[in-house]
Amino acid sequence: MAVALEPAQEITTLKKPPTKQRRVVVTGLGVVTPLGHDPDVFYNNLLDGASGISEIETFDCAEFPTRIAGEIKSFSADGWVAPKLSKRMDKFMLYMLIAGKKALADGGFTEDIMNELDKRKCGVLIGSAMGGMKVFNDAVEALRISYKKMNPFCVPFATTNMGSAMLAMDLGWMGPNYSISTACATSNFCILNTANHIIRGEAVSILL
């Protein structure tokens, strides 16, 4: 008795389709924190459970019952930011500039490599919860005396994106430049947006 059989089907394996997207590499670390200004020192202090909280020294807070904060001690902008610019900037901008330049140095971006980069394709993307509070508070105090005492840099220096703008101007980078503020997800959004800019060909390097 003849039995009709279906021909055996070839076993097919699912192959990952070739991707034409650019690969993105995240490299280089730079920190300016109450727990240290070097990535290894900062990380080891985190593992040791060290606290960055200390008494506030940068302004008089005797009227406040609670006088503790995570201030950054032994902080110096020498060698990283021009003295004239350093005096005019708010602290949060200095932190961004120095941490950003440290990240470039840690990533191996030497002066020769920086000169070879297409600055039109290099950007800066910064994540920050708030802008320059000191320059804003100083402006409020100045207004109590006279509007003529108002610092003209009050409004631009108080915005979060001014840190990325100052860093980009310092480096001469003219690519994507803005800031992100999404609470605890800020860092993840910065990395995601940076990767998307590079994949789409809008930038070849973004400092975040």
Automatic annotation (TrEMBL):
Record-linked PROSITE patterns: KS3_1
E.C. no: 2.3.1.41
Signal sequence segment: none
Pfam families (UniProt xref): ketoacyl-synt
Keyword Transferase: yes
Annotated ranges, domain Beta-ketoacyl synthase-like N-terminal: 22-203
Protein name: beta-ketoacyl-[acyl-carrier-protein] synthase I
EC main group: transferase
GO molecular function, one term: 3-oxoacyl-[acyl-carrier-protein] synthase activity
Keywords linked to the UniProt accession: Transferase
GO BP terms in the entry: fatty acid biosynthetic process
